[in-house]
Specification:
474 residues, five-stranded antiparallel beta sheet, two-stranded parallel sheet
Amino acid sequence: MAWTRVFKTRTRLPGIPARQKTQSTPNIWTRPLSSRSGIALFMVISAMTVLSVLVTEFTYIAQVNQRMAYDGLDQIRAHYLAKTGLKLSLLRLKAYQTVKTFTGGGGAGGMSIPGSLLDKIWDFPFIFPLPADAPGLTIGAKDAIEKFGKETGLVGSFTAVINSESTKMNLNQMLAAFSPNPNPSPSSSPSGRATPTPPPSTAGGGAGATDPNAFDADLARSTVHNLLSQIVMQKFEEDPDFAQEYRDLRIDDLSDALLAWADKTYERKTPTRNDQIPDKRAPFYSVTELHMIPIFEDAIYQVVAPNFTATLTQGVNVNKIEKPIFRAVIAQATKEEADEFIKFRDDPEADNRFKNEAEFLKWLSTNVAALRSDQAMKDFQADLTKRRIRFLTEENSFKITVQAQVNQTVRLIEAWVELDAAPASSSSSAGSSAGSSAGTGAGGAQGNNPGTSSTGAPTTKPKTGLRMTFMRIL
């Protein structure tokens, strides 16, 4: 193919200098640029943008899944760490029960240990990890504590607190079905734990006869009213701001709302609003239920709640109770006499803890002016029987509170535990069982399974002496 080459032509026009050139014609060898050259750049930018969004989304989902996995792992760790604290608390209670039985059994091998020292087994909080910077520790002790913390392999921290429940008033005390059956006479047991007796029968055995020691709901309700009064009045004396804010608070309204909530036989004296939560008319299952009663605001709840419990206790521990409950139960005592009781019992230089109920009643008859006569003391004991109130000198009802934390995850376990009386023959029976198991193991295959007897029948587990009545995990 022949190509024709076109040369540029120059034309000089009149009046135009020779150095100026006219517009030249285009060269046919030059190919014009395509008008679609910007689309490729746009497609590349769009693709990079989509890929960036996808990568960001995938990264975010991966991080969320990783965080959820770590949170799930922390929850499992916190749960079992809290259970570890609970088991350690149960071990402390068992140790307390064992030492108490050994030292106070009254046998030849018994020894006298002050009750305040014995209570140290359970009444101080347990913290993990153990603080290595506590004052008074030697360098060797600090190193041992740090080594112990590393060897345990536990991740996180927890606190385990054991509180006495017999130092509080039962919210269901005014209900006959939930009140303890008191011993009609003072207990002479060295342990101070009164023996339960069956409900009193009808006096005289005749039809229509009434028992003078029968449960009196009105007296039981008055005990709750007195306790609320003592709690609020003491708070007024200690906190002027609280007294100013709640100067119009009436104790009758508090007790009326509390009694109407739990006792279906009680007739409310104060009217309720239409928008108010209706009364439950059933026993309390938890102290936190007080939050549902409108009159118990947060500030009032914080003052009242520590003095009450919903656990069925066997009585009131006079070696642990505080002044409000002392005056609520013993209404005949004045404020000065209540102060004298606390001062006498908690004397740091002498062990004045009461050994049994009879000793406490003797102290009352000597130091409370209104109970010094024999008739006044008899009437007081009859009043206690009608209110189903019994005095204890040793603690047997406990509340265990364990809070575990792993990173940002927190787990809370609350458990209520009762101490049962350990059988006298538990050690001997355990020894005989161990001996028979060892003998069986030497003679045949039965010794390989500790849960079966020589005949192959399953054996019952030995009683631990601890009875958990209620537990909740939060």
